[in-house]
Amino acid sequence: MSILLAIESSCDETSVAICNNGKITANVIANQTIHENYGGVIPELASRVHQQNIVPAIQQALTIAKVNKKDVNAVAFTQGPGLLGALLVGVSFAKSFALALDLPLIAVNHMQAHILAHFIDDPKPEFPFLCLTVSGGHTQIVLVKDYFDMEIVGETLDDAAGEAFDKTAKLLSLPYPGGPLIDKHARNGNPLAFKFPVPQIKDLNYSFSGFKTAILYFIRDNQKQNPLFVEENLSDICASVQHSIVNILLNKLKKAAKQYNCNEIAIAGGVSANSGLRKALIDAKESMGWNVYIPAFEYCTDNAAMIAIAGYHKFLAGDFVGQETSPMARMNF
Ligand code: KG4
Ligand code: ZN
Question: What CATH number is given to the structural domain containing 53?
Answer without folding.
Answer: 3.30.420.40
